[in-house]
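TA notes, week 10

Several of you asked for a full example with nothing omitted. So below is the full record: structure tokens for the whole chain, then the designed sequence directly under it. When grading your own attempts, check the secondary structure regions first.
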């Protein structure tokens, strides 16, 4: 989630929205430092909350943050349909959807409305199993997978500079090779990213010149280049 949110902030000069589709664990309100219930416009559509220039919608805006979401599949799908189609997004250059993990009905239904997917995974084997299943599901649904991002790729000691591969090494590289996926970038394990996410101050805003922020910027540039039509690039 953090990777998509941070990269979202970097589509500079573009109008961007992000939909938090993880109904059971909404994190956008915290990570984007937003709270309150969306207002309705004259068409009775919800107006997204906005911070850092990004329009945001999440089930977290509609329920108490301490209340668990105890819903069955049909209720979840109804909520997601509302979040996707009953929102006054306005003209957007990009709408980024944070998908919940798994390959069930929710993910299948959402993938039918999302033209391109990006896989995010840590290097550990058990996480890569889920990443592989997700990529296979999207392919069966004929949804192109743009590439894969490696999260928590390595930990660099801030005092001595020593690198430690806490979650394993070369795992994402292997799955990318096996499935013919491009590696869009890797994000290190960093206390700055964790603290910024918890405080609602993304590291690309609070520390824009840090190595972590630069890694996000490089990923955002790659994604933007890949999804921007050639006609727009050439003017």
């Amino acid at each position: 989630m953090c990777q998509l949110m941070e990269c979202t902030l970097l589509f500079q000069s573009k109008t961007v929205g992000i939909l938090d589709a993880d109904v059971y664990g909404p994190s956008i309100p915290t990570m984007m430092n937003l709270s309150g219930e969306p207002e309705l416009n004259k068409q009775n559509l919800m107006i997204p909350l906005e911070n850092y220039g990004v329009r945001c919608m999440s089930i977290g805006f509609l329920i108490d943050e301490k209340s668990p979401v105890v819903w069955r599949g049909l209720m979840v799908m109804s909520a997601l349909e509302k979040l996707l189609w009953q929102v006054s997004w306005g003209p957007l250059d990009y709408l980024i959807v944070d998908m919940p993990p798994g390959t069930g009905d929710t993910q299948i239904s959402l993938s039918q409305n999302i033209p391109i997917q990006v896989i995010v995974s840590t290097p550990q084997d058990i996480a890569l199993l889920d990443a592989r299943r997700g990529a296979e599901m999207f392919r069966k649904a004929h949804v192109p997978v743009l590439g894969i991002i490696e999260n928590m790729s390595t930990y660099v000691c801030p005092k001595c500079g020593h690198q430690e591969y806490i979650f394993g090494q070369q795992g994402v590289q292997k799955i990318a090779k096996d499935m013919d996926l491009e590696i869009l970038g890797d994000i290190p394990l960093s206390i700055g990213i964790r603290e910024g996410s918890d405080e609602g101050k993304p590291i690309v805003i609070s520390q824009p010149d840090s190595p972590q922020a630069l890694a996000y910027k490089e990923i955002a540039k790659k994604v933007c280049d890949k999804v921007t039509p050639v006609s727009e690039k050439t003017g």
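The chain has two domains: 10-99, 115-226. Use that as a sanity check on your answer.
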